[in-house]
Design goal:
The complex is a heterotrimer of chains A (421), B (285) and C (332). With 421 residues, chain A is an alpha/beta fold. Chain A contains 16 helices and 14 strands. In chain A, the strands form three sheets. Chain A has a seven-stranded mixed beta sheet, covered by helices on one side. Chain A has a five-stranded parallel beta sheet with strand order 2-1-3-4-5, with helices on both faces. In chain A, strands 11-12 form a two-stranded antiparallel ribbon. In chain A, helix 9 runs parallel beside helix 10. In chain B, helix 1 runs antiparallel to helix 10, helix 5 crosses helix 6 and helix 9 runs parallel beside helix 11. The longest helix of chain B is centred in the first third of the chain and has 27 residues. The N and C termini of chain B lie far apart (44 Å). In chain C, strands 1-2 form a two-stranded antiparallel sheet. The relative contact order of chain C is 0.17. Chains in contact: A-B, A-C, B-C. Chains A and C meet through helix 1, helix 2, helix 5 and helix 6 of A and helix 2, helix 12, helix 13 and helix 14 of C.
């Protein structure tokens, strides 16, 4: 045994030093736990950003929130206070997310919360909002259950607002805009290809029920674990079903592998659905062009297009500052912070109750459109006159084209090169 | 559907065989219960990513560099972390598992938590009975077959191979005959890591690389080693084929959500009902 | 400590001093945020002590210890959410659920040791995790169940309740291992055949170790679930189990009390290192590997030896050797 060996060489001292070293580290750690002095919190508007650092959405949210804070501070802050962003990593895991939330509220003493990159984390966090009496502006999660909880128990969950989509609105856009477009091209046989996750629960059934209303039929449905790495069996099954269009619903899946494998197989169907990791201008390079032909639903300042007067300046500033185009969560987070600031200004207060009243009366033109919250669900309204959905496609040469709505369109639908009409 | 199952089942079996043979050698000859075996698979994939994508080396160079680097890491791990625990199987199990977690964290720190894509080694695809198969997947089967054949020749035909066999059969007799079992142990570590890294490299273009990618290959490798029983390379190959095909059949016939359950169920049931596996004997104690 | 020797107050001095310090801690640190971290430290100490019975005493490397944590957590969550049972009922019931799974796993793995037991227990835990994910109608899949009743609404009360659970759990375990049971478990670890040859019913004692450890796992899981008001499938997983295992090893296997020190050390370190960011788990694992190589008995036994040596210098008491580590005393 090594213990015996060490003992012979007088391990006593080694032990003492090791023990002392550990204790020192702990002591240093405890000092680090000291927290923020209360006086500093009174001079600032502290926004706690709870998000998942390892997701594209999380990184984009952090960038965008800091960008919004910088711009607000350049204008003199909010009600005379400087805006400061505190970030905490939910590690895409509800338990860890709650620890991170507690840290933001109890240690960093933030005044409002924002962010969220995974529905499970936000759903778990919602139970803490009343206890902490704090507003949460969700900017990156789409589960319908979130708005549903607010509608069902307003007193308990009224603290929750959302600038990003509710998957039910998304489902409508997929059916009425995206799949209707595919039907118009002559493709009527669809296969639903959904990862297993909270955000799209209910969405699958909705698609199965409503695809026939635009003239299509569902010939196959396949659900898979978001940790799946090998999609070949799934693609082969879809191909065997005779589907002309597969409707992927992806958020936590490794979308790069998904598209690389799809393209390498030259699978005999088109992809038109919703791919959250693909809501990014760099998706083309990441997949080495394998995204070619993909039709996706997007919103916000993803593509340099004049949705509102603020969209193009935001897109250019973000690209300049962070050396890359914004991800889908960037503009919703940026708008979320701006909406919070706007509500605080109108309420002339940072008190939670006043903020909630002011947020419910929000009518703010942001980078992704006009932000107005639904009174019952506290979800931002997504519709052509509020925040419009965009149907996009990756086309030859890495061009990210907008197909629908007509007022922003830059191209028309094109098949992947290996598929004929 | 049958053709697809045959093709994808073979690809999966080939990868699993490479993983499991190395592990079988490691447990059978080096007497190391290595729960860090999947880590070599992961390190191989990241090695080729570093070589081919970051350093822009030619693929063959990146491949060679990656497998030899991983082999050396395995040897170093044995010297530094496992030798002091020699003889204490439980400590070795825990140590290797913690090492696996440690490497996951190191990789996550260096390369980030998100999957990093590796380019295809060979582009194009082949039409086999109307099924379109990317060449990369066929390459996996070809390379795996070549590597396993090479390994078999090495063990059966060379003097070093003879020494390995001698240690496998009777370590004490081998020592009496002048075989340095310490060196053989290190060689086995190198070979096992080499095979696992090669498997990781071959699948990296279509499965991407991610820091957590070590876990399931590890579970599957152990499933195969235990199902096949120790003693022969052929037991592992047979078990790899069984697992590869049952997973593929389940994912085609029922749902791809259940593939990992297949390996787990086989692992659990074989251990409970027939710990000696299909052929060969029980491991360790 | 030889079995059967009467204990005086002095023998309990270190334990009582430690308990006193933990009782008074909130008076020194008045930050609810820190109390929250200490709740986790208490819980992990409790869980690691349970694991210690398996690996440290009976020599059973049950890597799938998360199975019991997960079962306890989900059972408590389902009872609380669907039947509205209060936490003080659901947590012990979660413990019983964990114990049932422990009994089942123990029965199916009776003849297994080492690698086989490690893999079988891992597979059992991973199968449960996958089942929980696939059958999401009941379990809500990956996202888990949220909205559980909290332990209490007061952070300070949470802390004291977790301290109570931890102290009760570790004291009970200490009483068990200092009785004949501890000796028998150790002899099974060393040589099961020899133990059987002298007429010990090893099956009964092994099952007892499984049931004890899994009851603690289940209670810990239920408490954890109620404390965070959320349970998720990763509670079955390898990461939480490994954290528990690392705490037990760093503290010193076969000591029970070592888990407490190591848990406070590592959980507080973990939280403090949040400032450093992503390298947290790495430092955790490196510490464990270094300690496994340099101090195979863990941190606690040498520390206690030092303490006792100090006490002896002060002529306060005679000392006995503190035993522990992955191997038992006869080995060193």
């Amino acid at each position: 045994m090594i213990g015996r060996k060490l003992k012979r060489h007088g391990s006593g001292k080694v032990l003492v030093f090791l023990g002392l070293g550990c204790l020192l580290v702990v002591a240093a750690g405890l000092l680090g736990l000291g927290g923020q002095p209360a006086w500093a919190a009174k001079k600032e508007l502290r926004i706690g950003l709870l998000t998942s650092f390892k997701m594209e959405c999380g990184q984009a949210s952090i960038n965008a929130a800091n960008m919004a804070a910088k711009e607000l501070n350049a204008q003199g802050g909010v009600l005379g206070r400087k805006v400061k962003i505190f970030v905490a990593d939910s590690e895409s895991n509800p338990e860890k997310g709650i620890t991170a939330l507690k840290r933001l509220v109890e240690k960093d003493k933030v005044h409002v919360l924002a962010g969220g990159a995974m529905s499970g984390v936000v759903l778990a966090a919602m139970d803490y909002l009343k206890r902490y009496n704090i507003v949460f502006m969700s900017t990156g999660v789409s589960s319908p259950m979130i708005g549903g909880k607010v509608a069902k128990d307003y007193g308990k969950y009224k603290y929750q607002f959302r600038t990003t989509i509710n998957a039910l609105n998304l489902a409508n856009a997929i059916i009425k805009d995206e799949l209707a477009l595919m039907v118009k091209q002559g493709y009527t046989k669809f296969a639903v290809l959904a990862e297993d996750a909270a955000w799209n629960r209910g969405l699958v059934g909705f698609l199965q029920k409503n695809i026939p209303t635009v003239g299509g039929t569902v010939v196959a449905t396949e659900k898979f674990d978001p940790q799946t790495a090998d999609f070949a069996p799934i693609f082969s099954k879809i191909a065997a079903s005779g589907a002309q269009v597969a409707v992927p619903l992806l958020a936590h899946t490794d979308a790069v592998s998904f598209f690389k494998q799809y393209n390498a197989m030259k699978a005999p169907f088109r992809l038109a659905g919703f791919n959250n990791p693909g809501l990014h201008a760099q998706f083309w390079e990441k997949t080495s062009g394998a995204a070619l032909g993909e039709v996706n639903v997007a919103w916000g300042a993803l593509i340099r297009s004049k949705i509102t007067d603020k969209t193009i300046p935001f897109f250019d500033d973000y690209r300049k500052e962070f050396k890359g185009a914004p991800h889908g969560c960037a503009s919703t987070t940026y708008d979320g912070v701006m909406v919070l600031a706007d509500a605080a200004k109108r309420a002339k207060s940072f008190k939670t109750d006043a903020l909630i009243v002011a947020l419910e009366g929000t009518d703010y033109v942001g980078t992704s459109g006009r932000v107005v919250f639904d009174k019952k669900t506290h979800d931002a309204k997504y519709a052509p006159e509020y925040i419009p959905f965009l149907i996009t496609q990756w086309q030859a040469g890495g061009k990210w084209a907008i197909l629908v709505p007509a007022r922003f369109a830059t191209s028309t639908y094109q098949n992947p090169p290996w598929l004929k009409k | 559907m049958l053709t697809e199952i045959l093709i994808y089942g073979s690809v999966a079996s080939a990868v699993y065989a490479m993983l499991a043979i190395g592990l079988s050698l490691m447990i059978g000859i080096a007497r190391v219960m290595n729960l860090a075996h999947g880590t070599f698979y992961m390190l191989g994939a990241y090695g080729v990513f570093t070589g081919a994508v970051l350093l822009k080396l030619p693929l063959s160079a990146a491949f060679a560099l990656s497998v030899s680097a991983v082999g050396c890491i395995a040897v170093a791990l044995n010297r530094v972390c496992l030798r002091p625990l020699k003889g204490n199987l439980d400590a070795m199990l825990v140590m290797t598992l913690i090492l696996a977690l440690m490497f996951e964290e190191v990789i996550q720190l260096i390369f980030g938590p998100r999957p990093r894509p590796v380019p295809y080694f060979v582009e194009g695809r082949l039409l086999i009975f109307g099924v379109s198969v990317p060449d990369q997947r066929l390459l996996v089967v070809a390379v795996a077959a070549a590597v396993i054949l090479g390994l078999w020749l090495f063990i059966a035909r060379t003097r070093v191979g003879g020494a390995i066999l001698a240690v496998a059969q009777d370590p004490e007799a081998a020592a009496l005959m002048g075989v340095d079992s310490g060196r053989i142990t290190l060689l086995i570590h190198f070979l096992a890591a080499f095979l696992a890294a090669a498997a990781g490299i071959l699948v990296s273009p279509f499965l991407s690389t991610s820091p957590g990618m070590w876990l399931w290959p590890l579970v599957k490798a152990f499933t195969i080693v235990i199902l096949g029983g120790l003693g022969s390379i052929w037991g592992s190959i047979l078990a790899a084929v069984i697992l590869g095909f049952s997973e593929t059949i389940v994912s085609f016939a029922i749902s791809s959500r259940l593939t990992e359950l297949v390996a787990l169920a086989i692992l659990f049931l074989v251990i409970i009902l027939r710990p000696s596996g299909l052929m060969g004997s029980r491991v360790g104690n | 400590m030889p079995i059967g020797q009467a204990r005086t107050l002095r023998d309990h001095l270190p334990g009582l001093l430690g308990l006193g310090a933990l009782l008074l801690l909130p008076a020194v640190v008045s930050d609810p945020y820190v109390w929250g971290i200490l709740v986790m430290a208490n819980l992990y100490a409790f869980l690691a002590a349970g694991f210690d019975i398996l690996l440290g005493y009976a020599g059973l490397p049950v890597i799938g210890y998360g199975l019991f944590v997960g079962v306890g957590a989900y059972l408590a969550a389902l009872l609380n959410l669907s039947l509205g049972l209060p936490p003080w009922l659901t947590i012990p019931l979660g413990g019983l659920g964990g114990a049932l799974f422990g009994l089942l796993l123990g029965l199916s793995c009776l003849r297994l040791k080492g690698l086989y037991l490690a893999l079988a227990s891992f597979a059992a835990a991973a199968i449960c995790e996958k089942v929980v994910i696939v059958f999401y109608d009941l379990t809500n899949g990956h996202e888990g169940l949220s909205g559980l009743d909290p332990i209490s609404s007061y952070p300070l009360l949470d802390y004291y309740l977790s301290l109570l659970v931890m102290a009760a759990g570790t004291t009970a375990l200490l009483m068990v291992v200092r009785s004949k049971v501890g000796l028998v478990l150790n002899s099974i670890k060393d040589n099961q055949e020899a133990a059987e040859a002298v007429g010990i019913d090893t099956t009964r004692y092994k099952l007892l170790a499984f049931v004890l450890a899994s009851f603690l796992g289940g209670v810990g899981g239920g408490f954890l679930g109620h404390y965070t008001m959320h349970v998720g499938p990763n509670m079955f997983g390898l990461h939480i189990a490994l954290t528990i295992i690392m705490i037990a090893i760093v503290g010193g296997l076969g000591t029970i009390t070592g888990s407490i020190g190591a848990s406070y050390l590592l959980i507080i370190l973990n939280e403090a290192l949040r400032e450093v960011g992503e390298a947290r788990l790495l430092i955790y694992t490196v510490i464990t590997v270094v300690i496994m190589l340099a101090l195979p008995k863990g941190v606690m036994p040498p520390l206690m030896n030092l303490l006792h040596r100090g006490l002896r210098l002060l002529r306060l008491r005679r000392r006995d050797n503190w035993e522990g580590g992955l191997r038992d005393a006869s080995d060193t």
